[in-house]
Design brief:
The protein has about 100 residues and is α+β, with helices and mostly antiparallel strands. It contains 3 helices and 2 strands; from the N terminus they run αααββ. Strands 1-2 form a two-stranded antiparallel sheet. The longest helix is centred in the middle third of the chain and has 27 residues.
Length: about 100
């Protein structure tokens, strides 16, 4: 399985109309890491679980970073995976 196939499998049953670009980037990285892990996991269900746990961890970390950055200004800019994300004080992403 490729990281892209795992990504597609991960988002297949999500009940959302759109995925935030930051979440998309996090999921891409989680899928790459799961596929390329030293443990050599190949079971589909285990890979999905690994991606879900990794995503929740990364999501919490990124949101905490954004909230901490807001204490220093109204706008936080994060460069992640060669993309730039800007979060304003009222961003839906951190709610």
């Amino acid at each position: 399985m490729t990281p892209q196939e795992l990504y597609n499998l991960t988002i297949k049953d999500l009940k959302v109309s759109a995925i935030h670009p930051m979440h998309e980037a996090i999921l891409e990285e989680c899928c790459e890491n799961a596929i390329n892990s030293r443990e050599g996991i190949t079971d589909k269900e285990t890979l999905l679980h690994v991606v879900q746990v990794a995503f929740m961890t990364c999501d919490s970390t990124i949101k905490g970073t954004i909230k901490a950055g807001r204490s220093q200004g109204d706008i936080v800019t994060i460069n992640y995976r060669n993309r730039t994300f800007t979060f304003k004080e009222d961003s839906e992403f951190i709610r």
